[in-house]
Amino acid sequence: MVSATTKMLGRDLWRLRGQVIAAALVVACGIAVLVGMQGAWHSLAIAQERYYAGHRFADVFANVKRAPSGVADQIRALPGVKGVDARIVRDVTGDVPGFSEPATLRLVSLPATGVPVANALFLVYGNYPNPARESEVVASAAFAGANGLEVGSRITAVMNGRERQLEVVGIGMSPEFVYEVGQGMVFPDNRRFGVLWMGRDAIASAFGMEGAFNDVALRLDAGADARQVIGPLDRMLARYGSLGAYGRQDQLSHRFLTDELAEIGITATYVPAMFFAVSAFLLYALLSRLVTVQRAEIGLLKAFGYASHTVAFQYLRFALVTVGVGIAAGIPAGLYLGQLLVALYRQYFHFPQLQAEFSPRALVLAVLASTVAATIGAGASAWRASSLPPAEAMRPELPAGFRAGVLDRIGLLRAMPIPLRLIVRNLARRPGKATLSMIGIALAVGLMVVGRFGLDGVNQILALQFGRAQHDDVTLIFTDTQPAAAVFDVVQLPGILRAEGFRITSVWLRHGHRSKRVELTGLDANAQLREVVGHTMGRRQVSADGLVVSARLAATLHLQVGDRVEVALLEGRRKVFTLPVAAIVDDLLGLGAFVERLALSRHLGESPAISGVHLRIDTRMAEPLYKRLKHLPAIGSVIVRSAVLASIGNTLDRTFVISSLVLAGFASIIVAGVVYNNIRIALSERGNELASMRVLGFSMGEVATILIGEQALLTAAALPLGIGVGYGLCALLVPVFDRDAFRIPLVLERITIVFAMVPAVCSALVAGLLVLRRLQHLDLVAVLKTRE
């Protein structure tokens, strides 16, 4: 038999179904974000763990110029080393069918027999290269997919000065290239950069590396400390031109993946928290009004012997049922959102199997968080209902006290039209409720600001890097260091308007007990095509007598202008010297350290040399230039400015635009829920007043203005507050995006402010129109009846 309280609960839920649905939708959005993002995090983490373990991802990496194969046996003898893969890795230019620009191909050797000890290849389809056929390669799945390569496709590569026709015999993946980017890249460009695995003998014969290697990957024993292995390994490889060993945490692909996992985890915490906070407010407002309306019913329940805790639980059940509806809708939506996010991540992170995994932890967390929010929202109302004495509850509530406010005393209200006067006076009488309503709307607006913040930051990076710092059209990176006179040879290529050489070398920078391995870049003092420019600090001139360092690097090493830094070269004679910090620049990409190019060559003990050339070209001659570059033996990589920008633009369209629209949709539900709930409560509370006004001759438009205008004022006031809330949230998120590879600056563009405000205003209008229909059908006689 259904109890009386259960029947009462059912009637209340049905009568207030619109407000219940509004609150439930907000809860559903929070649960969807929590389940979806936690599910995406869980899916990536599981795929990473399985892939790394199943395909023996290396723990330590090192590069050398050339080391005898016998050194690999010495490395295996180091304590803690489980396995060693001594291999050959080279970057070359290639000609991909149907693609005019030169592609950068990273050639990685495969052992003649067996499979690699570390970073085992996963063959998607096809075969491994036949050791007896030097032209066979396995292409990375991302590169093959972007360029339409299949088994049997051919690629032309310039290997050690000679063109080689390479035949694709398989499509594969490696845990070393989950995030497949080339030198100096932040966003992947699979059209122009790809990995090719080929037989060791084929690479060795092409580059004269028989009996030698230039790259080594180590797997360590369980529990071994990579730092205890890196020291002896560096000392062993120093004589062979090692640029310094590094652990898995500094491996490019792994670092991008772990950074992304950290960002997902943080986002999956703060965004659902905002939704649950708003849902708690909605339930508080709804149940506060319900308790006020049902004072007589509460008195009767207590008079008939119902205990106080039973009465309190009645209203707590109302909140739990509302949350239950949100849970029922939010979990399927969250699972679908998780699938969308995983599909999005598949475009950037390449695993043999990346499926949307269901996270039981996320489900439990979502149920607990929403239940806690419901309890908080309903707690005050439930306590008030349970503490009402029966005799007092059965009497009508005393009218609220009135006293003249500041606006009344200064006469400002008298100057206002009557509808506006009523609106302002009602808001002034209940400042707490008005404040909570504004906070709810402001949180939604702030959420939409956060949704586009990343896009604004990346646009700022592009504007700084490609608008103020880089003025070149093409960058050439040589396979080996070349004499500075090579610039004059490059100038002879078709379409070259200006060429500037640069020198890059790996160094350890030390200040006190802190140290960091970075790339030290040597630029010409009068360089025009590549400048050192900060986000807010402007241009910095490179110096022969000091270092210009990025603000991120300065913070890492605790550097200030004038501090002396120890520079340990990892090339040539490995000279160690000190230089003062000449300037600090707040650039947004990498850990930059810059010095004058000729001074860097002097420290290296070499004649003036360059690692590459920045070019400004006549775009009308781009095709002939690209054709020549594909066949030049000394060039290992070609970076085309326009192609990089196009690739980044495509990446942004696929990621930030989608995420922004999803967050905008969820945030619009918050605004609609808050406004609809407030107007419905106002209609319930002030039905007698509004009906009396209609009887006294006020038009429907005037009455609607009084009812909806209150929420319009709150929404208008909440918009700038929401922008401020969003800005504050973005400021909290800036450290999350503070990576070594790039930093997202705290910048909000005008379009972001518009993007945040327009959906909020539209949602408020829709909610107002829904309630306006009820106002038009208001039964004046029924409303004006007095309760006895």
From TrEMBL:
GO terms classed as biological process: lipoprotein localization to outer membrane
Keywords recorded for this protein, A-Z: Cell membrane, Membrane, Transmembrane, Transmembrane helix
ABC3 transporter permease C-terminal domain sequence ranges: 272-390, 662-776
Membrane topology of this protein: Multi-pass membrane protein
Domain of life: Bacteria
Transmembrane segments: 20-41, 264-287, 318-342, 363-386, 436-455, 656-679, 714-735, 747-772
Keyword Endoplasmic reticulum: no
Name of the protein described by the UniProt record: Permease
